[in-house]
Amino acid sequence: MNRHPPPSSPTADTPIGHGLSENPELKDRTLARLRRIEGQVRGLHRMVEEERACAEVLTQIASVHEALRAVGRELLRNHLKHCATAAIRAGDAPADAMCDELVDLMYRHVR
Amino acid sequence: MNRHPPPSSPTADTPIGHGLSENPELKDRTLARLRRIEGQVRGLHRMVEEERACAEVLTQIASVHEALRAVGRELLRNHLKHCATAAIRAGDAPADAMCDELVDLMYRHVR
Amino acid sequence: MNRHPPPSSPTADTPIGHGLSENPELKDRTLARLRRIEGQVRGLHRMVEEERACAEVLTQIASVHEALRAVGRELLRNHLKHCATAAIRAGDAPADAMCDELVDLMYRHVR
Amino acid sequence: MNRHPPPSSPTADTPIGHGLSENPELKDRTLARLRRIEGQVRGLHRMVEEERACAEVLTQIASVHEALRAVGRELLRNHLKHCATAAIRAGDAPADAMCDELVDLMYRHVR
Fold it and tell me: Which residues in B lie closer than 8 A to residue A54 (C-beta atoms)?
């Protein structure tokens, strides 16, 4: 697993942009959302422990999916605007690799 | 929110079946999985805090979706085999209501 | 591939119910929708032939998915209300098999 | 609805790339797949007309979704490699607009 590489020197055409470090507001918002999702999962655990009705548990699972999707959507937008944009502007080989990565990411990730 | 109703007296044709109370093994397995999912979400929080690469974070989000889906799938199967089966056998009105609930549940829940 | 079995003699508890034959209105509506979907797919073919912008083509593909989902949803509801209800009332073994089939169907089908 | 704009003069860094016109092989493959999908939808129509078992019809609907997804996936890859790459290289404003469009496209389209 890799950390974001240190920002390279920016140029007019390729704004630095390495994701979350560029966007502290998004980072904070994402961290807050993940805390909330952690709480939702703990709530699910409690619901199962208390043997709550299946339909309720399944509905709560759907809410967690929805909340995760919202996080994923913002991170994907950020990824496109920063990492993907930088790679695509860096030349044809990195652009090509990034596009393949994006398609894989989307079809695996976006549900 | 409702707890499972107390099990009614079973008959040959309509096995009691009120979800998780009937199936302690599934309950334990589900609780263990939810603990693991909680850990995965905490891991996501850490990854965002450390500003790990977006593609990694998105891949990890996809894993959480997958793990939640697996929990949902088992609970849905159990719901069908117990609660839904009991409702469908209880008469036409509860059967009808249960079928509508199932369709909604599936289209909201299953992703 | 199987046709629907001929309707068995109904009883108070297990209404005949073998899907579409029981519900000519749904059958007609579904056939009309499928004709429209066929037209949408032909429209897609034309769009690709004319080299229309990718975003437009992808948006049109999303519409076809949506239209198919709507057909699937109604058929699933009908399947639950007729075939699944009949199987679940027919005894524990057919009920069990039907529930497994339903879970598979949902997780393969419902997107 | 827009046709693809006429190809602008290519530069070393921004290959022309306006989608399908650049890739006649993909265009042919996509057209052939769409013809096959049209046939699948006609097959669905026939199955409903003949009142085939719901589970079969639903399984066939799932196949059409799968086939459409495969078409969408290739077109999305092509869109990224051509149109999106061109827009992202054209400057910050078109890059930004394209990234927003991509996120919307993915979350609406990719299922």
Answer: 19-20, 75-76, 78-79, 82-83
